[in-house]
Amino acid sequence: MAKTPVIKAVNLSKTFKLGKDNEIVALHSVNFEIYSGELICFFGPSGCGKSTLLSMLAGLQPPTSGEVIVRGKNLANYKKKELSAYRREKIGMVFQQFNLILSMTVLENIALPMAFGGMKRKRRMQRALHLLEVVGLGEKKKSVPADLSGGQQQKVAIARSLINNPWIIMADEPTGNLDSKSADDVIKLLISLSRKSKRTVILITHNPDYLQYADRVFRMKDGRIDKIDVNAKTTKVELVDSVSKLDKLKENENSESEEPIFSSEIGKIEDEKKEVLSEGEDESNEIPAEEDKEEENVEPREALSEKEDESKEKEEIKQ
Amino acid sequence: MKPFDIFRTAAGNLKRNRLRTILTVSGVVVGVGAIVFLVSLGFGLQKLALEKIVSLEALKVITVTSGGKSETVLDSKAVEKFKKLDNVTDVSPITRQIAKFSLGEIDSEQVVYSVKPEYLDMENIKISGGRTLSKDSKNEALISKEILTNLGLKQEDVLDKEFIYTLTGSSSPQKDKIKVVGIFEEKGIYVPFETIKNSEGAYASVKVKINDKANVPEAKKAVDSLGFNTSIIKDQSKAINQVFYIINIILGGFGMIAFFVAAIGIFNTMTISLLERTHEIGVMKAIGGNSKDIAMIFITESALIGLLGGIFGLTAGWLFGFILNLLANFMATESGGEAVNLFDIPLIFSILTVFFSFFISSVAGIWPAKRAAKLNPLEALRYE
To answer: What is the ipTM of this complex?
Structure first.
């Protein structure tokens, strides 16, 4: 299948001016293409321009020169409002400091991007609860971030990044503030999002342990991509429990019937889960990436009803 | 973001900083309370003045005076003319003469009004001692409290006692005895029309009573067209209203000073809140929050402060006035005075005050909201 990049950087440069004659070049004319479903690691020492690069991919700051092209559209052509919508619906950000809003409950945090999108409270809370269960924190729905450990907070942040079913997850040192056990959990969760949901995941890290999981590793140094490693066979990881559970559920469904996952049997699964499942089209997706639906050359299509369901939801978001 | 979500977020933010919210709202309560208290005092006094000075009955009366020409002399013919006009229920002439009274050991010159008993009702004359004049009264008089005070006399010195008077103004001095039957609040001495007649046959003025307040302007025009001068009490109430309009503005202005200090407080609170929440705003923007939504959250917060302050301020101002009025009335009745309502808050004024507080507070939130909307998301994210 002819691959079109999800995100493409063309001669991307960023220069910071510190005073009159003092310029710092954070990024030197970087070029790359990232494809649907890839797990990409940007790896390099502090100050090599990783975060600057990510913030430009996320549309948080414009490049000094060059272009960021997401699914054929240049971010520079987006108006302010469109850029907000892009950040809200097409990408999911995960930060090192979790960046949850402390005055809101866990559920409200997860649902916040949908609130900005104008989604009804009932519906977004349902979806947030489902995502919270997916990341294995269903029992914490009434907690506020301060009640959670770092690892739990980061899982909530990941759930938040997934709320609008984005194309790309961008994680900037998501394990930087976590102990090794929590860090492992979080990384596994991110990897499972990529592997099981075929969602594009861009991970910034300076921990070499994680590189084995990536499809490609962009090694950065002094504002340049120094080297690109391609992992022929990425290391498999044991998936996070909650994700595996959903997986098993689906396998059972499939063993009973040859029909796709969204057949009548799915009705046995509780409603809200079905709702989320129905948004994806790939059978193996618990939390499917939206991109798969939009790509014309992706193979098995699901029943129309699911698409309708999704288009309804999208309409609601627009409202 | 849906308006209700904006509201919910704003309310949540206010709850988070409970003490600061309470303090800021208190500032608005003081400001709005001061406005409500002072202006309602103004309105109360205005209402009181209108009630005391202008009775409802008095508003139905046209006072007619001579037009200055021979054909417009106020005499019995003129009275007959007035009686024939539409909507006229009563016509009561009054003469005014100077008489020398021997009250006890004191001789004094006083203004004597000869009136018909109906006139006393028309003018809303209040009797504070003794009785009023009746239709059959002859050689009886009502004397004003003022005269007694000026002459240093007590009520019992004059009531039901006879005095000698001499008309001084006329060419043929008339001397007779007269009995004081009542004391009243206003000025002068009233005697029945038949007791002292004007030798020239002309009346000082004529009171024309109209059946309804609404017909007064029309009747006034009719009397005017006959060539007489007329005046109605409504003109005075207009003047009273004008005076109180100015008084209310001045009182409201004092309250406004307190209110603007409160508005600065809101501005200050919102600016500090902006600094505190810079990082949070960065997060919101990074996960797709619109600048407009973020600005609206800020404006909603300050508007909510204004609304709460307005409602509680209205209550506080009203309550303070109410308690003060109770105290004042308690003291007034203790010392033999009349209980009155010193405070009056018209409904429209209450609504306007709350709306005003809401509006000004919203305006105070605009600048912090704009700054929040303009924050660079990346810089805001780095802000700790």
So the answer is: 0.76
* Angstrom distance (rounded) from CA B131 to CA A101: 81
Superfamily of domain A7-254: P-loop containing nucleotide triphosphate hydrolases (3.40.50.300)
**Predicted confidence band of residue A316 (pLDDT cuts 50, 70, 90):** very low
B287, A87: Cβ pair inside 8 Å? yes
CA atoms of A95 and B284, how far apart (whole Å): 13
Question: In this predicted model, what pLDDT tens digit does every residue of B127-159 receive, in sequence order?
Answer: 888 888 887 777 888 888 888 888 888 888 888
User: Distance between CA B369 and CA A103 in Å, rounded?
Assistant: 19
Percent of chain A beyond pLDDT 90? Answer: 46
Strand-pair partners of A200: A168
Does any CB of chain A come closer than 8 Å to the CB of residue B230? no
Residue A184 token pair? 């492992």
Interatomic CA distance for residues B226 and B71, integer angstroms: 9
Q: Which of A115, A92, A94 is nearest to A287 (CA)?
A: A92
Residues of chain A neighbouring B11 (CB-CB closer than 8 A): none
State how far the Cα of B308 lies from the Cα of B14, in Å rounded to an integer.
11
| pLDDT tens-digit series, residues B210-249 | 888 778 888 888 888 888 888 887 656 778 888 999 999 9
Contact A152, A242 (CB under 8 A): no
- What angle, 0 to 180 degrees and rounded to 10, lies between the N-to-C axes of helices A150-162 and A121-134? 130
Q: Which amino acid is at B216?
A: V
> Which chain A residue has its CA at the smallest distance from B373's CA?
A80
- Cα–Cα distance for residue pair A73/A81, rounded to 1 Å: 15
- Amino acid identity of residue B372, one-letter, is A
> Are the beta carbons of A101 and B284 separated by less than 8 Å?
yes
**Cβ distance of A113 and B287 shorter than 8 Å:** yes
Q: List the single residue in B279, B293, B378 with the smallest CB-CB distance to A60.
A: B378
Q: Give the pairing type, strands B162-167 and B88-103.
A: antiparallel
pTM above 0.80, yes or no: no
Q: Which amino acid is at B257?
A: I
Residue B19 contacts residue A110 (beta carbons within 8 Å): no
Q: What are phi and psi of A137, to 5 degrees?
A: -125, 30
- Report residue A195 CA to chain centroid gap: 12
Closest CA to A116 of B7, B381, B304, B284: B284
Give the chain A residue whose CA is nearest to the CA of B297: A116
Distance CA B110, CA B165 (A): 10
Q: Residue B290: which of B279, B281, B301, B299 has the closest Cα? A: B281
